[in-house]
Specification:
Number of domains of chain A: 2
Strand order of the largest sheet of chain A: 1-7-6-5-4-2-3
Largest sheet of chain A: 7 strands, mixed
Shape of chain A: globular
Structural class of chain A: alpha/beta
Oligomer: homotetramer
Distance between the termini of chain A: 23 Å
CATH class of the largest domain in chain A: Alpha Beta
Chain lengths: 341, 341, 341, 341
Amino acid sequence: MGLKCFCSDNFSGVLPEVMKFLTDQNFGHEIPYGNDSFSKEMDIIFNKVFESTVDVYPVYNGSAANILSIASCISSYNSVLCSEFSHINTDECGALEKNIGCKIISIPTYDGKIKPQDIENYLVNFNNVHKSQPKLISISQSTELGTVYSKDEIQEICDLAHKYKLYVHVDGARIANALVYLDMSINELLVKTGVDVISFGGTKNGLMFGDAVVFLNTDLAKNFKYIRKQFLQLNSKSRFQALQFLSYFKNDLWLNAASHANEMAKLLAKEIVQIENITLTQIVEANEVFVRLPRKILNSDSLDGFFYVWDRNSSEVRFVCSFDTTENDIMKLLELIRLNI
Amino acid sequence: MGLKCFCSDNFSGVLPEVMKFLTDQNFGHEIPYGNDSFSKEMDIIFNKVFESTVDVYPVYNGSAANILSIASCISSYNSVLCSEFSHINTDECGALEKNIGCKIISIPTYDGKIKPQDIENYLVNFNNVHKSQPKLISISQSTELGTVYSKDEIQEICDLAHKYKLYVHVDGARIANALVYLDMSINELLVKTGVDVISFGGTKNGLMFGDAVVFLNTDLAKNFKYIRKQFLQLNSKSRFQALQFLSYFKNDLWLNAASHANEMAKLLAKEIVQIENITLTQIVEANEVFVRLPRKILNSDSLDGFFYVWDRNSSEVRFVCSFDTTENDIMKLLELIRLNI
Amino acid sequence: MGLKCFCSDNFSGVLPEVMKFLTDQNFGHEIPYGNDSFSKEMDIIFNKVFESTVDVYPVYNGSAANILSIASCISSYNSVLCSEFSHINTDECGALEKNIGCKIISIPTYDGKIKPQDIENYLVNFNNVHKSQPKLISISQSTELGTVYSKDEIQEICDLAHKYKLYVHVDGARIANALVYLDMSINELLVKTGVDVISFGGTKNGLMFGDAVVFLNTDLAKNFKYIRKQFLQLNSKSRFQALQFLSYFKNDLWLNAASHANEMAKLLAKEIVQIENITLTQIVEANEVFVRLPRKILNSDSLDGFFYVWDRNSSEVRFVCSFDTTENDIMKLLELIRLNI
Amino acid sequence: MGLKCFCSDNFSGVLPEVMKFLTDQNFGHEIPYGNDSFSKEMDIIFNKVFESTVDVYPVYNGSAANILSIASCISSYNSVLCSEFSHINTDECGALEKNIGCKIISIPTYDGKIKPQDIENYLVNFNNVHKSQPKLISISQSTELGTVYSKDEIQEICDLAHKYKLYVHVDGARIANALVYLDMSINELLVKTGVDVISFGGTKNGLMFGDAVVFLNTDLAKNFKYIRKQFLQLNSKSRFQALQFLSYFKNDLWLNAASHANEMAKLLAKEIVQIENITLTQIVEANEVFVRLPRKILNSDSLDGFFYVWDRNSSEVRFVCSFDTTENDIMKLLELIRLNI
């Protein structure tokens, strides 16, 4: 695959700094299962990054981070409220239902963000034994549609949730992209607003594997170590997850990587709308670009694999930029599109 | 941790050849979720190694390989028969029960190996609606007690299982150590005998993460891709699992690594019994050494962390050798023991 | 509770003929767990009623019949398609998700009936590992909105389902009311059209407890006895369920009971719309009457408990007639409404 | 089935007093799902019987009472300690594992009763993430071997449990038989000793269906209503469960029924040992008689169905007496045995 493909940011490899650190530190023996010296360092770094006392548990991937985060907050007779486009609802093959046994209430949204007034419509039937009891709101930051919740929007959702004694979970598979867009610290955006637990993504932004469950509400972490083990998410050679996060946070590598991806998305958006009959369908805030394309392009063989078809009916496609997307990659993509229009 | 610690082989790091290969191949974009070019190569290599048509699915760790292997074979109303010492019974925090909902029937054994005549005692109550229906026999090769099933022993278990329409699963967390001990190909040992599915371990023998479910009975793999996804075991940047296996199999790296670990265990066993009041409690066939120690050693501060206490009551401890254990490590260990006796 | 209350048909007691039969046959010993002589008779009667070879398994209640029916057809990675108003979606506290682990896809409908063209929109993403795989369509007959699918409508849904290799389940909590309305045999309506499995309700139509799972596609029943036991739905003194069904089917008791309830609903509908500002919101086909009422009535203390508030926002309420509803009950209800308007 | 069969007490029908009460009270409408007037009465009666504040939830059967009791106390990463012969371990087709996802630790016992010193051996590995965490001790009273724990024995188990922060569950499928044997109130035996939750059986002692979960530790009942619904154990026409318990407790009907069954067992035991080569294998305390029989009897066609073969290898069988067993039934049974010896 010579060209970069823009289908998703997980087509990319590993940040060179991360790979080098893994190699450099690959010697000697370490206690496994999260008790190695690097994992202890990692815990300290996460506390610094969040400027708060947090509990951190690396797991295998983003789906696992989502499901285990939520499993620590609710029971099977509860329901989870989220956007209709949320990853937990559409892209995890029913993992939430299988692993927790709870119901998902998916809320319609045009931009990937759920609004307090819409959420509140579903905060009903408390105490009715026939109904799954609402207990958690899950939002994605940045969203699956490339948009970003403002701090105020998150604050309102958290306030609503806590008023009804619900928890708030953030699917942060692309949290770095959101932070960079908002130019805000994670403390400001997620700790101060009262979020309870985060799926802290790294893989899409240049790690090899191993997103983390980060508890801001550390009471919820009380028995999490057993949940992680029983849900098959405890790694023996844990040092290699810790090492990734250690280098990820060093010298703002994570924010720089996300910043670059966002910049590339902005560039792509700016240029692609110059082409006739191509229009943005979502505003570009993080590293994703959603556009409506001429059907001819959608079906062009030579463009096959260069974007993700979001909705074939409306000719809407998604481009995602990565830490390793270059201006040159974008220029080649645009050229290819122009050639095929 | 200056000294190697012998607690378990997962205290070790990553084989340098594997780490180098990961680094060398870390460029460009690849399709995620198992559809990358390296995963396709990996499939081919596995077929070669097994000299048979097999279906291969990397997952996060050994527990996941075990649980998902078994989940593909049975229903919640079935039972799994295994040794009382088997990892699925004692070391996975109830993952089998949680994820499959089935019952474990644990069979007593003095050497970690379950015997056909013992197993057959539990092959009863078929068609009795009140009883979990036996459907799978799981054996560990090499066992949790460092012993190794002979080909004949496996053949007898497979014959018994298939006579009663049960499946056979092999927990191969340390399969390479068994193969090296028996000096036998995996085809000879597991394919020809009729094993249905294997947890093919690599982590304990020098990989970073990612054991694999290998179906020999490929009918069982029909819907496995959904199971893997729903059980949170599908990795996006799958190439980095494939790359590990590619280098693991290159130039017999895996067998050489296991061979070295076995040799070191043999050396340790030979030397340690020279020390008075230390006796082997299991024969040493793979890379583990079980001994009864004077209680003084068991409780010695300066030896804390150098072995795993298997049974405090009987002063039995376990030493495990890794691909990176050296003769020097062993000599230092012995010296330390002698100093404290 | 002097007056009948119209909230639901399960406010009623047991058909006197059924209670008498239970009493008359209450002597001697019988083999438990479905192996009694009455259960064998019951099996024969069900085969006669269905004019087909069917497998019958009584369970505790309608929710259990629904969940166990579906559990016998699908895996956790599958999805179930149903109306947004279906009982499995809205009134079982997430039982489908908890017990099967699968996803529910709820389809919007204005009259409780899902339409093939709407269903087909959701028959997508086959073979996509990230998506729950559609495997079963569940319809309610009669529906939760008191409407009844015609034979042609069921035929079209079955044809669509089987074209895509999906199963069809019918939630028949009120199946007798539908049959009476259509004046059609269950063979004609559900066997000939190709339905796979039915929750055969009886409780709402005058039994004490114990709806039945009836497999028309008997291949699906192969391991059902274990599922019933493990899901806690196997009763020891099974004769008392069999006895209920034996008397239920005797002299068309079941159809007469449903016929009466339907007639009462028709009468209520005819009379209630004579009252000003009360309008039907659904056509009345079975034993339920949905109307929009003046808000004053909705909130009237003296009418509290005489209807079920379906949607407070739109002042829509539900009345349900039972086997024991009398014309007098209806006249008293209407009078009470008129007094409060 | 002319003769009574002694296989189990659930071969019997319904106590005539109970059936009559069901018939007499079968009129009018009642609020369903546990909110009827009889259920409220039932709650009061249970509080009286227990001489304590308890929370009562009828469910379908004994297995359901066991599983739901335990589900309210523990998480999937916990383990349940019980006798190897306990119903939850051997006779529920893996329901505990399926519905809760936890591990069962079965403890060997020769008389069905587990001893504190044996239990304590399993109270280990707390805080070890690889091990299911012990959280509940379940005992059966009377036991599956017809024996009865004394108050002191229960007190010791409760003290041990609470010392380690475990809960105590009593499988009381035959609780009345135990109370009668001990001539003790349930308050004295189970409330004062500190039991947390009971499966309060009635079916084996003459009810039609519907054992109850009774919480003595009412904190555990906080969310139980949702668990009952989601586990498919909430009955709509709940009055018919309440009515059964109301008549069960009236005039000590329950204790009289159990007393009779115990007496019959004592008589059977006394007489059967007069026959040569028949010996008791357990002391007879409740309503069960365990004996070793000549193999000829075990295999006699004319005795087929008159006892339950407990262990074919050792020619051990079980006889159970019911509320409706008569002296005449016993004499006929003994005669039949003598004829075949």
